[in-house]
Inverse folding.
């Protein structure tokens, strides 16, 4: 069946949106904490500080423990109000200190010294100090989700009540980026004493405090009037409703049952625009992809993996599914908008005969199952289009629907899959974007890819002090990605925020910006 026939089935739906909405996963490079200086719709002086907002999310988090399962788009929005990180950054600029007052690299480049902000307390009254930082970093180091991302740390020592020294095995140029991501998020040590309670009762230092979590319905946050920072929450409360069906979420927004919603579906953006709703579109912050388990027979061979890419007609899919970047993806995990992007020596192209030749050279049947999180029929149809392309070159792929997010995530992080539709984040530095997913043993290397030349390039990019050397290392890494094709990039894109006209503070963040959002006074 041609891609153009699929256009009649799911007209107006974006390919990136379909897969990302269906996958729910992300890399561990998510930025959180702090604030953005991006353009804000409205002024804090115009806000009704007694107002509340209800925001529709595409999924219900399985946990609100930053050291636990945080691999969903929904986590980022909820975390933004409750938690803060040692550093704050975004996808366009280097991170700056936040809960940490100063962050200083040693002369030998093998340690970093962090001095904490004074007068900060967690929501439960626990002081934020050096002991709390050590507790959180040590806890993340043994996290099954995030721990491998901190393997370069050899020691975390309390120097004095407000100072921590972090010792490294090798120099880590982009270490501040790590402190602005999930591994730099601080939770109350008292709250984390109970490993089960911390999943459902998060305690941070942010402008909102956690109030309640009604399973399968909503999470309620309340303004933290004792917030230590200058920019206090602009809302009395914030409710996150779990509306997993895209159509139902958009219908609720249009009907007035929601004040805002997150989406990655271009058709929803167009519908909301046509009805006068606001749309906040941040810079490219991630990509949809198909992880290929490089340990599985067939998928463990680069010829097969390249054949999977070459057999897909991206132009036809972009036309069929309402162009959303599918035919302009970068060919690497770094988007073309990034200054770190390096174009592959030979661009990806639709070449079914070349794919057949690679498969003939491989010489064995290729058969595998690809998992997709249960969602809309559009997601199923979009994946069917790609599976059909694979079938035309002799690859047999079977789609397996997974009913819940937790099962989906666990299957990926444990390697219990052949292939899976997924989402990864793109950090402001390639160390967080590439090392995590492509280095042997990387924290988000769900494809279980291992290549000594890739490891060497990523190690050099991690430790080199000058940008020119790092640029060259990451250019080599991107070339290796293209030749080895450890997984397939579907398209680069971003989360959109749709909101009513009276919502203010829609900064161009990757998630719903709870710490700047407000509502106009009537």
């Amino acid at each position: 069946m041609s891609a153009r026939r699929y256009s009649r089935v799911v007209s107006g739906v974006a390919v990136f949106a379909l897969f990302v909405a269906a996958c729910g996963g992300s890399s561990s490079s998510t930025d959180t904490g702090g604030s953005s200086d991006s353009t804000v719709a409205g002024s804090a002086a115009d806000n009704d500080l007694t107002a509340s907002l209800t925001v529709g999310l595409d999924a219900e988090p399985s946990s609100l423990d930053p050291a636990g399962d945080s691999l969903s788009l929904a986590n980022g929005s909820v975390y933004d109000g409750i938690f803060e990180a040692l550093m704050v950054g975004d996808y366009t600029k280097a991170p700056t200190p936040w809960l940490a007052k100063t962050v200083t690299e040693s002369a030998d480049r093998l340690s970093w010294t962090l001095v904490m902000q004074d007068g900060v307390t967690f929501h439960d009254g626990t002081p934020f100090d050096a002991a709390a930082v050590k507790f959180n970093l040590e806890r993340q180091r043994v996290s099954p989700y995030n721990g491998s991302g901190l393997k370069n740390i050899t020691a975390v020592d309390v120097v004095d009540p407000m100072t921590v020294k972090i010792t490294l095995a090798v120099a880590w140029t982009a270490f501040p980026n790590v402190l602005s991501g999930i591994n730099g998020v601080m939770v109350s040590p008292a709250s984390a004493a109970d490993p089960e309670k911390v999943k459902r009762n998060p305690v941070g230092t942010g402008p909102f405090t956690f109030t309640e979590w009604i399973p399968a319905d909503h999470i309620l946050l309340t303004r933290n009037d004792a917030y230590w920072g200058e920019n206090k929450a602009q809302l009395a409360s914030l409710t996150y409703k779990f509306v997993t069906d895209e159509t139902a979420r958009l219908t609720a927004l249009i009907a007035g049952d929601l004040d805002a919603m997150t989406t990655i579906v271009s058709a929803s953006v167009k519908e909301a625009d046509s009805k006068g709703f606001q749309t906040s579109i941040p810079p490219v912050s991630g990509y949809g992809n198909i992880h290929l388990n490089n340990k599985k027979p067939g998928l463990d061979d680069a010829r097969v993996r390249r054949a999977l890419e070459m057999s897909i007609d991206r132009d036809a899919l972009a036309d069929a599914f309402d162009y959303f970047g599918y035919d302009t993806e970068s060919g690497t995990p770094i988007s073309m908008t990034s200054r770190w992007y390096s174009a592959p020596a030979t661009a990806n192209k639709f070449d079914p005969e070349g794919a057949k030749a690679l498969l003939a050279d491989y010489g064995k049947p290729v058969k595998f199952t690809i998992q997709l999180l249960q969602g809309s029929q559009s997601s199923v149809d979009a994946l069917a289009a790609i599976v059909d392309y694979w079938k035309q070159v002799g690859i047999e792929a079977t789609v397996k629907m997974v009913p819940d997010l937790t099962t989906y995530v666990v299957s990926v992080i444990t390697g219990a899959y052949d292939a899976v539709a997924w989402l990864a984040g793109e950090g402001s530095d390639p160390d967080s974007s590439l090392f995590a997913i492509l280095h042997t043993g990387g924290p988000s290397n769900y494809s279980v890819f291992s290549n000594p030349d890739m490891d060497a390039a990523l190690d050099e990019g991690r430790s080199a002090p000058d940008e020119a050397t790092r640029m060259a290392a990451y250019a080599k890494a991107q070339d290796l990605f293209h030749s080895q094709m450890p997984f397939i990039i579907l398209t680069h894109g971003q989360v959109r925020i749709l909101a009513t006209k009276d919502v203010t503070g829609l900064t161009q963040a990757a998630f719903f910006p709870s710490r700047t959002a407000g509502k106009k006074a009537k």
Q: What stands out?
A: The first strand starts at residue 52 and ends at 57. Confidence is low (pLDDT under 50) at residues 1-42. The domain at 3-25+285-427 is CATH 3.10.105.10 (Dipeptide-binding Protein; domain 3).
